[in-house]
Amino acid sequence: MVDISHSTDEFMFHDFAMVQGDSERPIVHLPTDAHLLAKTSATDLPVSGDIELLVGREWRSDNPHYRHAGQHVEFSHIRFTPGRIARKNLALAVKAYGIWVAT
After folding, report:
1. Which of 13, 25, 37, 48 would you call most buried, defined as having the most Cβ atoms within 10 angstroms of its Cβ?
2. Among 58, 32, 52, 59, which residue's Cα sits nearest to residue 99?
């Protein structure tokens, strides 16, 4: 049996990143040269590395066309892939679906 308890630590991964805020929308602080740990919005961030287009298939039953499971293709923004390197200290909010966005 695994015991799940709420963490009270501010730091993640041996002082690699600091987390502030509540469990609903935490803010992750990364130091210079740290690796991104999640898909991160690629808008105006000092990060180097690979990017990708986030695309998903959705069920939109209210659409007159393409309303069945997986028929609606939803394009999201361009994201940095996990593992890319921050070139400056960053403060990133964890948003819907775990996507990190600059604060």
Report:
1. 37
2. 52
Residue 7 lies in a domain: no
Only one residue has tokens 């990133």, namely 92
Q: Is 80 left (phi over 0), alpha (psi -120 to 50) or beta?
A: beta
pLDDT at 101: 94
Q: Say if CB 54 and CB 67 are below 8 A apart.
A: no
- For residues 67, 70, 74, 77, the Cα torsion angle rounded to the nearest 10 degrees is 170
Count structural domains, the chain: 1
pTM: 0.71
The range of the structural domain enclosing residue 20 comes to 15-102
Domain annotation covers residue 3? no
Q: 57, 73 in Cβ contact below 8 A?
A: yes
pLDDT digits (tens, 9 = 90+) for 27-41: 999 999 999 999 999
Domain-embedded: residue 54: yes
